[in-house]
Write a structure and sequence with these properties.
Blueprint: H1 12-30, H2 42-55, H3 60-67, H4 74-82, H5 91-98, H6 101-113, H7 115-125, H8 129-140, E1 150-151, H9 152-161, H10 166-182, E2 191-192, H11 205-211, H12 227-240, H13 254-258, H14 266-280
Antiparallel strand pairs: 1-2
Helix pairs in contact: 1-2, 2-3, 5-14, 6-8, 7-12, 8-12, 8-14, 9-10, 10-11, 11-12
GO biological process, one term: peptidoglycan catabolic process
Keywords: Signal
Signal peptide: 1-35
Length: 281
């Protein structure tokens, strides 16, 4: 077997990965056809998830590569348990820390740089360029800020194994595998935040699959590196969920409710609207 020669210390990590892969392959082959059960042994859970992913069209090669050596991340669980309500501040307090002159200045500069692209996206999807710039800036400082540093597969597998929202994150885990399967991002670029959010506007994997647009035409939806893909995909999410072109999007409007698909927090959506307004001044 692949793990029979694991005595050398310098090979310990490689052997652990080989052992995990062999264990996963064996469990996938032997496991009965039933849904993955949260809690319990983590490797058994991954094997069940592997079977579910295969049933949804993910290749065994992608699954074994993605799951090799994966363990639960206690830091992700700790963060998730204490991350209850981000918005303890009032709207005014929160917006004052987000809608700041340096961000406004950079966003205006980038609006000029990407004027043709933004115009094309706005015409096609009906979402104002100012709102797209607001989202792009608030989420990752236009790709220059923190997009997360955690391996997405490990993060989401950890959250899926936890029984509080297992159904949600089991779906996200399979979606993350599909991103790799489609060739949109290599496994090394599947790096994100504490809930598995990816890219410059922080899409969960299921949203990446559902709303992602290959707007630069290179055959891949790349929300980490491609500005056209980032902006078009962000606009597409809003359009698909009912965005009304040309209509206002402040609090109390239909478009403000559509923005709930982006973020459920009223304070965050009001901040998005404020940022967009500042870009029109």
């Amino acid at each position: 077997m692949a793990f029979a020669k694991c005595s050398a210390r310098r090979a310990a990590r490689a052997c652990l990965v080989a052992f995990s892969g062999a264990l996963l392959a064996g469990l996938v082959a032997a496991a009965p056809a039933r849904a993955a059960q949260c809690g319990g042994d983590f490797d058994t859970f991954l094997a069940a998830m592997a079977r579910d992913a295969q049933a949804q069209g993910v290749s065994r090669a992608v699954i074994e590569q993605a799951f090799a050596g994966v363990t639960a991340d206690p830091a992700v669980l700790a963060f998730d348990r204490r991350q209850r309500y981000t918005f303890k501040k009032t709207f005014e307090e929160y917006a004052a820390t987000r809608v700041i002159p340096a961000r406004i200045k950079r966003a205006r500069t980038l609006m000029q740089k990407h004027a043709a692209l933004l115009g094309r996206v706005e015409r096609q999807y009906g979402v104002p360029k100012e709102l797209l710039m607001a989202i792009w800036t608030l989420e990752s400082d236009n790709g220059t800020g923190d997009m997360g540093k955690l391996p997405v597969i490990r993060t989401i597998a950890t959250l899926a194994h936890d029984c509080r929202r297992t159904e949600l994150f089991q779906g996200e885990l399979i979606a993350a595998l599909k991103i790799v399967q489609r060739g949109d991002l290599p496994l090394r670029d599947m790096i994100g935040a504490f809930a598995g959010e990816l890219g410059q506007t922080q899409f969960l994997p299921s949203s990446y699959i559902k709303y992602g647009v290959d707007y630069d035409g290179n055959g891949h939806v790349d929300l980490r590196h491609s500005v056209p893909d980032v902006l078009a995909s962000t606009a597409n999410l809003l359009k698909v969920n009912g965005w009304q072109p040309g209509a206002p999007f402040g609090e109390g409007t239909q478009n403000f409710e559509v923005m709930r698909e982006w973020n459920r927090s009223v304070i965050y959506r009001k901040t998005m609207h404020l940022f967009a307004e500042r870009l029109t001044e």
